[in-house]
Fold this sequence. Notes:
This protein is mainly alpha-helical. The protein has three domains: 99 residues, no CATH class; 125 residues, Serine Threonine Protein Phosphatase 5, Tetratricopeptide repeat (Alpha Horseshoe); 49 residues, no CATH class. 65% of the residues lie in helices and 0% in strands. It has 16 helices and no strands. The longest helix has 19 residues. The protein is elongated, with a radius of gyration of 31 Å.
Amino acid sequence: MIDKKLDQPPAALETLLMEIGAGERQPALWEGLHAAAVRDGAGAALAAAYGNATSPRRLQQLPPAAQAEVLMHAADCFQGVVGDAATAEKYLERVLAIAPGHPEAFARFERRLEARKDERRAVELYAAAAVEPPVPIASLAAKVVARIVLLTDRAPVSDDACRLLALLAPHHPRLLQVVDGHCRLTKRPGLAAEVIELALADTTLPEDVVLEQRYRLLELYTDAQTPALAMPHVEALLGRDPGDALARKMAERLLSARDVASRAAAVLQTARRASQPPPSRSQPPPSRSQPPPKG
């Protein structure tokens, strides 16, 4: 049919689906199928066949990698054969839902969002890709920093996407600052605290960023009237520097919080002892033993 006349597009598509299900990708035949559809004016019939073949029920019969590949072929058909860019974009979204790090789907969808200046969806695209980055992860973090600052309070990044951005925190020194700023702008201080806590769980986060964000959490938990949640950070700060005035002040406040009062008292006592200068010790003169009298 590809060589002569594509008179049965659904049958041709089903044949290639069987091949891909068996692990045979056959890229030349997929390209030939689309070219034949254009040649023989069978684009609409092939698009309808793709619609049936890519239903969730049908796709579940294939492994995830094969599902993503079939959806990419569908996007190619709707874009290049039918000229339906909107439907092609929906197929790209479905690919990224299955494989967030799919390089081609990521690049094509990013270009579409850039053309529309859709900064919010671009940030959410980068957040999803953080799980399996299709580009260098430092580049992905830089893209987030550059775009999230352009958003207004009318275009909030979803809560789940903000949480995923914590994965990028070790790769850009300003990322947590700009995510925190976006959460403040969109009146979600609790989400800001969640993102910071998730980022602090990563042991590769630079020490200066860790210190800055622990102080920020003291502010967030104080403003939210949940100071007890700051206890682990008070302990960490005083463990690092027993003379830390801000951490001591928070520890003293936590003495009145029933759940963590004993921990606050213990960390204050340890910090005070560690801050005290060592006692001076005067060295007694060496004793001299008298020789026994002669005779």
